[in-house]
Amino acid sequence: MVWYADFETIVKTDAPLASRTWFGLGGPAKYFIAPRTAGELAAVVCRLRDNNIPMYVLGAGANLLIRDQGVDGAVISLHEPEFRDVDISERHVRAGAGADVPRLVLQCAKAGLGGLECLAGIPGTVGGEIRMNAGGVFGNIGSRVLAARVMDTHGRIYTIARDDLVFDYRRSNINAKFIIQATFELVPDDPQRLVSRVKEIWMYKRNTQPLAESSAGCIFRNANGFSAGALIDQAGLKGVSVGRAQVSTRHANFIVARPGATAADVLALIDLIRRRVREQTNVLLETEVIIW
Ligand SMILES: Cc1cc2nc3c(=O)[nH]c(=O)nc-3n(C[C@H](O)[C@H](O)[C@H](O)COP(=O)(O)OP(=O)(O)OC[C@H]3O[C@@H](n4cnc5c(N)ncnc54)[C@H](O)[C@@H]3O)c2cc1C
Hints:
With 292 residues, the chain is an alpha+beta fold. It has helices spanning 38-50, 101-110, 126-132, 191-208, 228-234, 263-281, and strands at residues 11-15, 29-33, 55-58, 64-65, 71-77, 86-89, 92-96, 113-114, 135-136, 139-140, 145-151, 157-161, 167-168, 171-172, 178-185, 187-188, 241-242, 245-247, 255-257, 290-291. The strands form 7 sheets. The chain has a 5-stranded antiparallel β-sheet with strand order 6-7-15-11-12, with helices on one face. Strands 1-2-5-3 form a 4-stranded mixed β-sheet, covered by helices on one side.
């Protein structure tokens, strides 16, 4: 009997992943699972654990590079409606892990609730952005999280309140495998003012990042106060290519995948950048992009 007996409707085998990532690269998942409810997620997670099948949680794939050989395990996506539900009540917003953040940002601004505008132009889901503490110069998502509802690999659900949450530069202390929902505490403000702020931040991003090209955002973490982009730029790497992967000419910490690129091209370019920056500045860059 196959391990996924009773779960046939939510499990796909040998499922393409490239189109589910912003890079548009990489091979298939041995198993791709889209549970419809938290109960179904818990049941399938227990079955995966009993069968020693590695689990990977996919958000919008905006910070992911999937290798060409694909993922030898189960990729779980929380994109079914129950996981995308958004509920706005007074200054609290409860959103499912699969909710699209750029859409949520606009929805809150229009409802007259401020605090998430800093995430304008950052593609991702609520789960992925909390896991990565997404943000930048305008602020980070973590500062607005009142509570996170999570599930571990035993299928146990629990809530982590603000006092127990720690958000750091592109990191959070959430160890549970799945973030399934979050509650944000926002601040009432004038909707028109908030929507203009969202637009302003989005324009800034559009002017400084290659938003229309295939990428995964910043490839490297800033190191000891040094901007990774500035180090790459100083090393003369802007515009340098390996195969069909190129260091963006607009933002040196972005790698863009040209048509025909492979994940191997991106990985080779990542190696080249790390080597050159190390030689010229003695800084060893660490990747921010998650590689599966
Ligand atoms: C054009 C572009 C611009 C970007 N600009 C920025 C920026 O300004 N600032 C910034 O911080 N980032 C930026 N990024 C990166 C990306 O938007 C963020 O890292 C975002 O948090 C990714 O969210 P996601 O849902 O796509 O997660 P994914 O890329 O799908 O996954 C990222 C990680 O989160 C985990 N994860 C996803 N969902 C869950 C969940 N429900 N529970 C537990 N773990 C989960 C995954 O397993 C993985 O480890 C940019 C990316 C692009 C393509």
